[in-house]
Amino acid sequence: MSISSQPEQKHKGFTRQNNRKTLTSFAIRTQMIDIDSALESAKMPEEEQKIAFVTTTRQLPYLTSEYEVGKVFAEGGQGIIREGKDLTLKRLVAIKTLKKEVEKEDPNTRPMFLQEASITAQLCHPSIIPIYSLNTDEDDGLHITMKKIEGMTLKSYLEKVCVQYRQEGVDTFDERKSLLFRLEVFLKVCDGLDYAHNRGIIHCDLKPENIIIGKFHETYVMDWGIAREINEPGYDSATWKSPTMIAGTPRFLSPEAILGKHTDQRADLYTMGLILFEIVTLQEAYMGTTNEEVLALIRTGRIAETVHRFGYKIDADLKAIIAKATAFNREERYQHISELSADLRKYLAGEETSANPYMLSRKLIAFAGHHRRITLASSISLVLLLVLTVSYTVVSEVKRIASINKMEHFQKQCFSGTEDTATYIETSMAESMFCLSSLMAEYLFLDGCAPNGTKELSTREFVSEQDLSANSGTKYEEQALYSSVYHRKVDFAHFAYKTPDCSKPTQADRVILERLGQLHPMCLKSFYSQIPKEAGCDTEEKKNEYLRLAGLPFHNILFGFENGLFAILPGRGDYADDYDPRKRTWYSTALEKEGQMVWSLPYPGATLEAGYLITCGMAMYDLQGKFIGVIGIDIRLKGILEHLNVYGNKGSQVYDKTLMTSDGTIIVSTGKAFQEATSDPTRKDALKLMYQDQGMFMQMKQQKCGVLRKEVLVEHKDQTTSREEHLFCYYYLPSQDWYYIEEIKNMK
Predict the structure, then answer these.
(1) How far is residue 737's CA from residue 492's CA, in Å, rounded to a whole number?
(2) Which of 58, 121, 364, 633 is the most exposed place for a label (fewest CB within 10 A)?
(3) Contact assessment for residue 512 and residue 479, using Cβ atoms and an 8 Å cutoff
C-alpha cells in the first residue's frame, strides 16, 4: 500500500498555562446565547440535506466575464491563488486556479478540485470560507472564487511564536494568554468540523497549514479537496477492500488509515488531537525526519511525550484530553468532535472533564469509610482551622474577582451572539445579491438573442395583471390562491405584467415578455433556493405552498422597463391602474447608482398589507450600453425582524437590534422609534432614520468589531426612568459595508 503525500514542512508550536485557576475566567463559548438562560445548553442543529457533489463543468461561466483577475499571491503544489475583483459587486476576492500541468499529470486532480468547490460551497459555517462561484475559461480551466482572507496559517503563527520565544526568551511573553488564544482558534476549528461531520462530510486532510487565522481572529478550515462522505454510498464492511493508495499528509494520518482500515469521522478527530498536541506543546507529535519514519511511528502508536517545548508544565487535564483524542484504538477516543470541544471548554471553565475524572473525592470517601474516627476528628479540626484563618478581606476579594470574571464572560457571550447574527445577515444578503446578479445576466443574455415577439405568449410563464385581478371566470383562478404572507391571491406559476395604460401589450412589450417567459424557471429556482431544508419541500407543489403560507424574507422579483412595462413574480392582480414602476423608490434608487447593485432604504409597499420593504436593485443596460430598465428583489422587513428575534442574543435584557449603513442610516431595527415609524399607514416615501448616538457610531467604525459600554436613561412601563449600563456589541459586514449592533443591558 502506497501513501500519496502532500508537501509538508515542520510545524512549530507553543502553549502553556501558568495557573489553572486563572484560566476559568477565559472560558470560551460559541453557542448562540439566550440572555435569560445563559447556563442552558444550546440545542443541537436539525439534520441538514445531504451534500451534493459537482461532477460536471457544463455551462460554467467564464472567469473573465465576472471577475477582473489580479496578481498571484500564493502558490501550492496543485494550484495558484490570485487576487481578483468581482465586476458586478465590486468586492475583492481570491481566485484559486488548478494548474494545467498538474491536471495533465494526474487526471484525478480535476474531480478533486470540483469536489473541493462543491463541498466548501455547501458548508455554510463561520469557520468554513465562503465560495462565491466556480468558473472556467477558453482552455477549459477551473477556477474557484472565494472570500479573500487576510491572515496567516496556524502553522505560520506557531512558527513565529516559537521564533520569538527562542530569540527573546519565553519569560518575556505571557504564555498563558497565548495559550488561551490558540485554544480559542482550535475550538473554532472544532465547531466548523462538527458542522461538516453533521452534514456527513469528513475532511481527510486536516493540518495546521489548512487552518487560516484571519485579521480579526476569524478562523477558517481550508482545502476540502479530498474530503468525502462519512457513510460512503455502497460501502459494505464484508466486501470492502483496503485502498492501494492513501491521500493525505503522512504526519497527520490516523493509525487505521495507515493500517488499511475503513475510516470514519474518528480519523478527523485523531488528526485534531495531533493539532491540539502541537498547539499545547509547540512541537510535533511524531518526530520522524522522513515519511517512512513518521508512518512507522503512527503504525505502532509511538506518539511523543506531551512535554512543552520551552519547559512549561502542562496541566494534567489538558494532557488527558490530548491522550484521549489521539488514542491508538479509535474506540477509546472521543467518538465525535463535539465531545472533544465540550471537554476542552469544561477544562477552560475549571470543570471536571470526561478525559480525567476527579479521583480525590472518591479516595476521601473510601478513606472515611475505613477510618471514621480519624475522619471525624480531622474534619472538625479542618473546619475550626478554616473558620479561624478565613478573614472578611479574603472573602470580599474572592467575590470581587468572581464578579469581574463573570462580567467578562457575559460580555464574551453577548459578542458571540452578535457575531453569529451578523454572519447570518451577511450570508443571506449575499445570497440575494447573487440571485439578482444571475437573473440579470440571464436576461441580458436573452436580450442578445433574437426573439420574434410574434409567437403566442405562453400562459405558463405570465399573465396580465388585469386578468389576475378578475378573481372569477378566468382560467387563472385555480392557480391564483390566497396567501397569508402576501395578504392577497398570488400565483407562482406566472409572472404578472402591467402596461402603463392597462392596454394590451405592444410588439415591443411582447418581445420583453417572451424573454421573461424564458426566465421564469430560473426565477422560481431563486425562490426555492431560499426555502429551509428542514421544511421538507420535495415537490414543486409543496414548495409553492410553503412560499404562499409560510413565506420568506425574499418576497418579490421585479422588472420595471423604460417604457413603463412592469412585471412581478409571484403574479398578483391588485395594482392600481396608475401604478408606474418608474415612480417607485426601488426603481429610482437603482438609477441613482448607475451600473451598481444597491439596496434601497425601507419604503412602504404598493399596498398597505405589503408592509415595508427594502429592495436590492440594479439598472440594466444592453450590449450597446442603452438603458433597458431595472431589476429588483424585494425583502420583507417583517421577515428580517423575525430572523433577528431567532438568531443571536435573546431575552428581556436585549433592548435593540439594529442593521444600518456606513453613514448611520437605519435599514431595520427592533427599537421603538423604528417600529413606530414603520407602523404609519399614511407614509408614501422611503423611511430615513439615523442612528441616534453618532459619536459612539464613529468609534464603532474605527474599530469595526467589538463591545462598548455606556450608561443610558431607560423609561420603564410604569413611566419611571432609571440609569442603566448597556453593552453595545457591534460587528462590521464588509460585503455590504453595513454595521450590525445589539444593545444589551449589562450584568450587575
Answers:
(1) 33
(2) 58
(3) no
Q: Nearest to residue 655, comparing CAs of 727, 560, 547?
A: 727
DSSP state of 474: S
Q: Which triple of cell numbers denotes residue 431?
A: 445570497
Question: Per DSSP, which regions of 87-140 are E strands?
Answer: 92-98, 131-135
Which sign, positive or negative, has the C-alpha torsion 603, 605, 606, 609? negative
Q: What is the pLDDT of residue 22?
A: 37
- 391564483: which residue's cell? 480
Nearest C-alpha neighbor of 193 from the set 201, 182, 184, 185: 201
The length of the chain in residues reads 748
Greatest extent of the chain over all pairs of C-alpha atoms, in Å: 106
* CA neighbor of 415 nearest in space, from 709, 123, 748, 735: 709
Nearest to 207 by CA among 273, 125, 294: 273
- 514: β partners: none
Q: Are strands 627-636 and 612-621 parallel, antiparallel or unpaired?
A: antiparallel
Confidence (pLDDT) at 91:
92
Integer-rounded Cα Rg, in Å, for the chain is 30
Question: What residues are paired with 236 via a beta bridge?
Answer: none
How do residues 91-127 score in pLDDT, each as one tens digit?
999 999 998 888 888 888 888 888 888 888 888 899 9
- What is the distance of C-alpha 688 from the center of its chain? 29
State the cell numbers at 671.
Answer: 427599537
Check pLDDT > 90 for residue 267.
yes
* Integer angstrom CA distances of residue 33 from 36, 39, 127, 413, 730: 9, 9, 18, 6, 16
**pLDDT tier at 734, thresholds 50, 70, 90:** confident
Name 128's bridge partners.
Answer: 221
The alpha carbon of residue 224 and the mean position of all alpha carbons in its chain are separated, in whole angstroms, by 16
d(Cα 114, Cα 118) in Å, to the nearest integer?
6
Q: How many CB atoms lie within 10 A of CB 682?
A: 6
**How far apart, in Å, are the Cα atoms of 524 and each of 324, 491, 494, 567?**
50, 11, 10, 14
Q: How many CB atoms lie within 10 A of CB 574?
A: 19
Q: Following CA atoms 160, 221, 341, 33 in sequence, which dihedral angle do they give, to the nearest 10 degrees?
A: 110
Mean pLDDT of 678-689: 79
Grid cell in block for residue 116: 473541493
User: Residue 19, SS3?
Assistant: coil
Hey, what domains does the chain have and what are their CATH numbers? 2-32+42-348 (1.10.510.10), 360-389 (no CATH), 422-641 (3.30.450.20), 647-745 (3.30.450)
Cβ atoms < 10 Å from Cβ of 147: 18
How many CB atoms neighbour CB 493 within 10 A? 20
Instruction: Measure the CA angle with vertex 469, ends 464 and 474; round to 5°.
Output: 75
Cα gap 714→689, rounded to integer Å = 20
- pLDDT single digits (tens) 539-583: 888 888 888 888 888 888 999 999 999 998 888 776 777 888 998
Q: How many CB atoms lie within 10 A of CB 352?
A: 13
Query: Cα separation of 356 and 347, whole Å?
Result: 10
Owner of C-alpha cell 391602474: 577
Coil vs helix vs strand at 201: strand
Q: Pick from 714, 709, 703: which is nearest to 671 by CA?
A: 714
For residue range 33-55, list pLDDT tens digits in order: 444 444 444 444 445 566 666 66
Please, are residues 237 and 262 in contact by the beta-carbon 8 Å criterion? yes
Question: In sequence order, what are the residues at sequence separation of 6 or more whose Cβ sits closer than 8 angstroms to the Cβ of residue 47?
Answer: 198, 534
Alpha carbon distance, N-terminus to C-terminus of the chain: 63
